[in-house]
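hey can u check if this looks right to u? its 432 residues, i copy pasted from the old doc so theres a chance i mangled smth
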Amino acid sequence: MWQSEKYNPWRSDILTTENLPVWIMQTLPTLEITNITSSQPAFDTTIKRRKTRAVKVGNVTIGGGYPVVVQSMINEDTLDIDGSVAGIRRLHEIGCEIVRVTVPSLGHAKALAEIKQKLIQTYGDVPIVADVHHNGMKIALEVAKHIEKVRINPGLYVFEKPNTSRTEYTKAEFDEIGEKIRETLAPLVISLRDQGKAMRIGVNHGSLAERMLFTYGDTPEGMVESAIEFIRICESLDFHNIVISMKASRVPVMVAAYRLMAKRMDNLGMDYPLHLGVTEAGDGEYGRIKSTAGIATLLADGIGDTIRVSLTEAPEKEIPVCYSILQALGLRKTMVEYVACPSCGRTLFNLEEVLHTVREATKHLTGLDIAVMGCIVNGPGEMADADYGYVGKTPGYISLYRGREEIKKVPETQGVEELINLIKADGRWVEP
């Protein structure tokens, strides 16, 4: 037998756990394949977004057919007034449309009043979300006076310490806690309702309430039922300015939870917008890939009205990833779209270097598609949808295109300069 045959993943007759290499051993078992019907038509190239109600958060609207909103969260201590104002401003200036802050105490909640006023006086009125956690009834009521939206976690808002000796929840016990939740949640709901403000019911897979874990298990179903319980309390008090999130750190759990939530809401006649995110995604390339895998999958299904990419990095690093996801799916166009072929032996110039030069010269523009193609094989055909094309046709020369039309051939040394001149001639250039 050829030495490497034992590592061939396609040879089931020779593939055993004893001879598997490490990279295969660490791969999860193959999932059962089922016929799943998506809400998206199978071959439709346009994403059909799930219809949701419009929820106002200050001067920003989530859902209702409005563009998908980008969010992030400052990492400054809310007691640091100046630092928090600066952090909110930095995020907003680079495209963060709603900013979240943490409020772990009443002191933090009261500090938000000063933060909000100082922000308005020195910069502008940025929509703010307050993050309320453990036993946050008093905190939430205080913070609701000062900002546009309150985020609560159903698993922690009315926090019950786990009982290590418990083996089950009776229906009576389950309902008793449900009534306590209603009593503590109602004042906040009424306050937000009367002020015309919003609430995010933010369920986290890692912090489900004990009674939900016992009743539904550690499952997407438990996450969904936790959210539905809080939604019903809000609806009973005639409050509908609600956004829902179903975050998890594992992408398959996150995707399943959001899909189930959307299905349950559709069945119940609910149309609340969904806030998408993979919580605790980590950092670096993998953190970005992990977030994209979850968020983009759901957006492609038409699910999602606002997003946050949660990276273990400076929050400013999250914003470009959000907009890149939205642009890649055609949901928002906020930058130049670059189309470039993979480098191969046919390439007539240094593709990587030229693409970098073109990008640096044009990245400040908005709404253009620019193609950089290394040869005529991948040229006009592959870049047919681009506004402008930069194509290697003969050694030492570049052909510039407007759409499908070849405009002129120029020496390679003048290629980028002449591309800019072509954009300028069309009146589509702005100075950086």
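The chain has two domains: 55-328, 337-425.
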